[in-house]
């Protein structure tokens, strides 16, 4: 059945719960339900990653790779989860870094419900080779601590390059299901991050980091805030220790991802 002939209803609460899980043994069954729900919804195949920057593929509770064993990418098909440069070269991955809502894409561009000029400047040359697909509906999944997951939904026909009908019909439903699945996976498989949940930065630390993120030197920040350069350095170093960061850049990155740099003075 074509996408136009399928139901555009949002998934039921029962179906959403079916793709959630709370222990490793639930990963495989939930992945199967996600795969089947997407096929029923819009006739597309499912490809999911919990972290676009990680080389480690998603696995079920027994260690089997979901992409091949459940989502069916076998044989001569591209084994996208085994391509270490994908995070750097794929235009789809680049798009997930600057877009939070579902989009669809092909060699002609990225298509969203609301314009996003950041997508317009992404390089699309050799799209089919670099994206490892002719077209995809993509759900970016922005997670705590700056982690980005993504779910791509692909036509069973490798040459199909127009997913506009499926996108119009099913994008929101796909987003709900993909986010429920990936968020569960990340919680179940996450390593502990001691202390990060209770971090508190002082007002001065936040002020110094905000100006540092704007490209100001310690001396310039001191002039702006009326502080000694050594005092600015002390506050940034203190924030770095609290955030368990190895350098100034990582301190600003972690502070931004935890929401501190958006705080109002």
UniProtKB/TrEMBL annotation:
Signal peptide position in this chain? Answer: none
A GO term for molecular function = DNA binding
- InterPro entries annotated for this entry? Sig_transdc_resp-reg_C-effctor (IPR016032), TF_LuxR_autoind-bd_dom_sf (IPR036693), Tscrpt_reg_LuxR_C (IPR000792), WH-like_DNA-bd_sf (IPR036388)
Q: Which keywords does this chain's UniProt record carry? A: DNA-binding, Transcription, Transcription regulation
Q: Does the keyword Transcription apply?
A: yes
Coiled-coil intervals in this record? none
- What's the encoding gene here? luxR
Q: Which CDD domains match?
A: LuxR_C_like (cd06170)
Q: Source organism's superkingdom?
A: Bacteria
GO term, biological process aspect, one: regulation of DNA-templated transcription
Q: Name one Pfam family in it.
A: GerE
Q: Where is the HTH luxR-type domain?
A: 194-259
Full protein name: LuxR-family transcriptional regulator
């Amino acid at each position: 059945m074509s996408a136009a002939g399928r139901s555009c209803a949002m998934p039921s609460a029962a179906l959403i719960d079916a793709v959630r899980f709370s222990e490793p043994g639930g990963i495989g069954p939930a992945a199967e339900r996600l795969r089947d729900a997407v096929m029923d919804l819009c006739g597309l195949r499912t490809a999911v990653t919990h972290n676009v920057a990680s080389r480690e593929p998603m696995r079920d509770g027994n260690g089997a790779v979901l992409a091949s064993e459940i989502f069916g990418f076998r044989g001569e098909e591209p084994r996208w989860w085994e391509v270490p440069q994908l995070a750097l070269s794929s235009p789809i991955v680049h798009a997930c870094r600057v877009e939070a809502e579902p989009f669809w894409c092909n060699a002609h561009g990225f298509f969203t419900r609301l314009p996003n000029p950041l997508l317009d400047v992404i390089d699309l040359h050799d799209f089919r080779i670099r994206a490892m697909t002719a077209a995809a509906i993509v759900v970016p999944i922005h997670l705590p601590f700056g982690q980005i997951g993504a779910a791509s939904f692909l036509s069973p026909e490798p040459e199909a390059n127009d997913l506009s009908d499926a996108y119009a019909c099913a994008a929101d439903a796909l987003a709900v299901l993909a986010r429920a699945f990936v968020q569960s996976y990340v919680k179940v498989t996450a390593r502990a991050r001691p202390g990060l949940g209770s971090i508190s930065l002082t007002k001065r630390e936040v002020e110094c980091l905000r100006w540092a993120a704007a490209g100001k030197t310690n001396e310039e920040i001191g002039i702006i805030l009326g502080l000694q350069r050594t005092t600015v350095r002390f506050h940034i170093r203190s924030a770095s220790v609290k955030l368990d960061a190895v350098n100034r850049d990582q301190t600003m990155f972690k502070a931004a991802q935890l929401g501190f740099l958006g705080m109002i003075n």
